[in-house]
């Protein structure tokens, strides 16, 4: 009796694993369907804003949640992507939006290499301060450069025609393009996290000296994670510029670096879905507050959420839900 | 007129003084950050907001309670420092056992709350705080005109820095603090009330920021956002100097102020960014910082 039970065990485990995979795939499928029908239910521009910030937060979370690096300067990548794309699309009318976005992403990637090389030379709290200072440097560069429009920013960036023949002027067409970009970014992060590379990142996060003693070139891993994160943040910024047809200093300000931290923290650091949920909540909150008499209190509210999250809600919404699920259903 | 590298002497000296005064603020603020970091191991992101609160407390105290500048210079650091102790006791202590990045995030949230509230109450334009009469006017030194208030700020800030150095390096309380920085658990085992020491230390660091705020009130427009941009520069100064040594923090602060002032003379476009550029240079050549011990 016991023998047959033992023999059965591997197949039971495999079955359970298969079922878990099935559940996860069904879950993702439901999310994608939700994303496809969403613009028929809600205002597409609002959804696109959420998707852009969700991608931004996911990119940030790759660094904080999986490599344990707290960057306080991610606004610099968002803004670099946005400004590059905005400037190119506004100055060269023949350029198609996808090329503009690719160029913006490449610029952000390049900046990510520079920032990464400098900032991973310091650890922990110093890393946060270095990234913040570098982003502030970029803020001043953007104010003083002629191509960013200074305090006014870039306006009237044309959305243009995707691949030269699909007009993005309608919000519906734009939405599906943004959704596709978001899925691409999310899939890339998902693959990175679950790859052997992602496992080593987690090992570094948990115990850096041990990872070094095991022979991993820790700095190289951190740098690659930093650059991927910067590139995807740039992708989010470039896309945002095409959607809203403007790029401004708001994206480069340190408040923006703080907001993306809050989105990630609120949704759940180190969870794949958390940053999306956090971005949705923060963007919705800003939207609701800006139309209420409390419009000026947005930053106070964000500050309060920060304090509450840190004091009593550290694993975020998705983290807490996951804990409840594991406690009751497993 | 005497020229220095193609610039009139008076202009050169004027910017040098301005740079030294800014440097004095960098020194005071980075010193406060270093003191707090030493024992609590957190970076106090609310430091800029607490500096701003100091300036506002001086302004409002004068406007509504008639508290004069000299009284404010003593009272405001005590009040804001006391507020800081409450923050430590009821908020920071609850997360002291966690990763220290949470302390950074919590104080960042506090900074947003302080700043946002004051923006709503007073707007962003900034108010003027009258320079006390004794310190108005200036001295003609022959080669330059030295505004008295600037000279006073320099003297007061340096005196406060030296006082802090003396407190930490030469008194019993300071010895406890240094020992606690090395190993606070062992200190606790020896019967020192470490939690109280931590509260006092945080309050002292915040008090230093508030003191700087009162000093700055007659010099710059008092506005809710005066602290945040300054704090980012101070972070760069801290990265350059490292938080390991008190004299290092003072010297780096003053030095960076002077470099910034001289950049204003010779290449004004880079005045905003020069400290960040120095930080990049230091990161490339000496990643631990000029006075840092961290490997």
From TrEMBL, chain A:
**TM region positions:** 26-46, 53-79, 99-118, 125-143, 172-189, 223-248, 260-282, 294-313
- Topology within the bilayer: Multi-pass membrane protein
**Does the keyword Ligase feature in the UniProt annotation?**
no
Task: Please indicate if the UniProt record lists Nucleus as a keyword.
Answer: no
Keyword annotations: Cell membrane, Membrane, Transmembrane, Transmembrane helix
Give the matching InterPro entries.
Answer: ABC_transp_permease, LivM-like
UniProt subcellular location: Cell inner membrane
Mind naming one GO cellular-component term on file for this protein? plasma membrane
Molecular function (GO) terms for this protein are: branched-chain amino acid transmembrane transporter activity
| A Pfam family matched in the record | BPD_transp_2
The entry's protein name is Branched-chain amino acid ABC transporter permease
Which lineage?
Answer: Bacteria, Pseudomonadati, Pseudomonadota, Gammaproteobacteria, Oceanospirillales
From TrEMBL, chain B:
Protein's membrane topology: Multi-pass membrane protein
GO BP, sorted A to Z? amino acid transport
Give the record's GO CC terms.
plasma membrane
InterPro entries on file: ABC_transp_permease, BCAA_transport_permease
Q: Which UniProt keywords apply?
A: Amino-acid transport, Cell membrane, Membrane, Transmembrane, Transmembrane helix, Transport
Q: Which GO terms describe its molecular function?
A: transmembrane transporter activity
Q: Which residues cross the membrane?
A: 20-40, 47-65, 71-92, 104-129, 149-168, 189-217, 229-254, 266-285
Protein's cellular compartments: Cell inner membrane
What family classification does the UniProt entry report for this protein? Belongs to the binding-protein-dependent transport system permease family. LivHM subfamily.
Q: Which PANTHER family does the UniProt record give? A: ABC TRANSPORTER ATP-BINDING PROTEIN (PTHR11795:SF442), BRANCHED-CHAIN AMINO ACID TRANSPORT SYSTEM PERMEASE PROTEIN LIVH (PTHR11795)
Q: Quote the protein name from its UniProt record.
A: Branched-chain amino acid ABC transporter permease
Which species does this protein come from? Vreelandella nanhaiensis
- What high-level taxonomic lineage is stated for the organism? Bacteria, Pseudomonadati, Pseudomonadota, Gammaproteobacteria, Oceanospirillales
